[in-house]
Amino acid sequence: MSAYRDKDPLIHGIQSKIRVVPNFPKPGIMFQDITTLLLDPKAFKDTIDLFVERYKGKNISVVAGIEARGFIFGPPIALEIGAKFVPLRKPKKLPGKVISEEYILEYGKDCLEMHVGAVEPGERALVVDDLIATGGTLCAAMQLLERVGAEVVECACVIELPDLKGRERLNGKPLYVLVESR
Predict the structure, then answer these.
(1) Can you list the residues of the chain whose pLDDT is less than 70?
(2) For labelling alongside 54, which of 45, 60, 127, 165 has CA 20 to 30 A away?
(3) One of 54, 69, 89, 167 is an active-site residue; which one?
(4) CA-CA distance, 124 to 122, in Å (whole number)?
């Protein structure tokens, strides 16, 4: 599901604050830069408010944010809906015992880690990131949470690149996005 509506002033305001940087970090990539969104307090608040409106009252107990930009959007959503925030980090960034999930990227492999015990069986989780492209990172996040017995309710991203078909890799898991970019 997408919140994207051509005439919605909130969505238009958010979309207008996302800078597209051609050929970054390598030729052919159109980088979606959310730092310009963060510079606008109204657009940033509208972004958080739209997610909170969707998830308040859905009995979500865990908001899992994917490193690094999921750490920007996840905590304020978690606070507003009364859930805990769990960071899903790159390898060797968390002290103590962790559980890991490796995943394939277009250019190699990567891994997400979470503290053992951060999420309990039966908890209802929301996965948050800034963007979905091919869907590999979101799939790894969901698998990590489901391995410890959590129910992943939905994934939430500010931006979707629909041409990369990441949504199709989510095996039917709901995905909510605010902005689509081509």
Answers:
(1) 1-7, 106
(2) 165
(3) 69
(4) 6
